[in-house]
Design brief:
The complex is a heterodimer of chains A (about 100) and B (about 180). Chain A has about 100 residues and is mostly helical. Chain A contains 3 helices and no strands. Chain A starts with a helix and ends in a 13-residue tail after the last helix. Chains A and B meet through helix 1, helix 2 and helix 3 of A and helix 1, helix 2, helix 3, helix 4 and helix 7 of B.
């Protein structure tokens, strides 16, 4: 049934995603790390759906939809930022810094 | 055997995720992330979620990652030595990630036996509790309606309203992406 190992793998992948968000400065790689975290959450939903019924699969559908929408809008924002200051380094995006 | 295959793909997924966050080239990071997603699709098959596995390959490894690669190539990003943050930021990141890992790996103790024990202690309908303790509800659903039908029936009945809201969300995302990405006319 592999419930415990699947949840453990989900935890490891989510932690790696958080680590990526914390140590990278490239906005696109940061988005990829967010996708990695969403994938880890999907794995937890699928693993628990084995026990708790098919609602977990529904949640995976909605997470995937939101992830696709988020990727489209987020990458459009990154394009707009790149056009504005010719860089997607997060250190250079400090207009709200005060 | 299933367990062995699971651990093989789990090791591949974790190794590819590590490579994804330490590679300096954005294209290489994207390729390693695709590898992670394919390994997760294989793990979904092992967990009995065949349709989710197909969707994972089509939507994530296909559509979303192609979108990422398009943007990387559109922006012409190369290797940037300053891409990784400084030593102090990495140290702070390691501390935060270590704490999070300790919390999350506690989930490992969440075995089917423990779930069944907690479910039997909780109040609820007898039939649902019995099915939960046997761990068979999803398998029964799939056996009764088929792989796709088992997902389609709840999606278009119990979850119909969230499904429709999802379509509105996608429309808003399409319009928003076009408005944000187009040049001023």
């Amino acid at each position: 049934m592999l419930l415990g190992p699947a949840l453990g793998l989900s935890a490891i992948l989510f932690t790696l995603g958080v680590a990526g968000v914390l140590i990278r400065r490239n906005a696109i790689v940061l988005f990829m790390c967010i996708e990695l975290m969403l994938n880890a959450v999907n794995l937890a939903f699928v693993a628990l759906a084995q026990v708790y019924g098919i609602g977990g699969y529904m949640m995976v559908f909605f997470v995937m939809t939101v992830a696709a929408a988020e990727a489209a809008v987020g990458l459009a924002i990154i394009l707009a930022v790149f056009r504005h200051n010719q860089s997607i380094d997060l250190q250079n995006i400090n207009l709200l810094h005060g | 055997m299933t367990s062995f295959v699971f651990y093989v793909f789990a090791v591949i997924a974790v190794a590819a995720a590590v490579m994804c966050i330490v590679q300096r080239s954005p294209v290489a990071a994207a390729m390693w992330l695709v590898q992670t997603m394919f390994s997760l699709a294989a793990i979904y098959v092992l967990l009995g979620a065949y349709f989710i596995s197909a969707i994972q390959v089509l939507v994530y490894a296909g559509a979303v990652m192609v979108l990422f690669l398009f943007v990387i190539m559109l922006l012409n990003l190369g290797h940037d030595a300053r891409d990784l943050r400084g030593a102090s930021a990495i140290a702070a990141g390691v501390v935060v990630v270590g704490l999070l890992a300790v919390e999350l790996v506690g989930l490992w103790a969440y075995t089917p036996a423990r779930i069944a024990r907690e479910a039997s202690a909780a109040a609820g309908p007898e039939a649902a509790r019995a099915a939960l303790m046997a761990g068979l509800t999803t398998q029964q659903e799939t056996a009764a309606r088929g792989v796709v039908g088992g997902i389609a029936a709840p999606l278009f009945q119990a979850y119909l309203v969230p499904f429709e809201i999802t379509s509105v969300l996608l429309l808003v995302a399409i319009v928003g992406a076009v408005v944000l990405a187009k040049r001023k006319v």
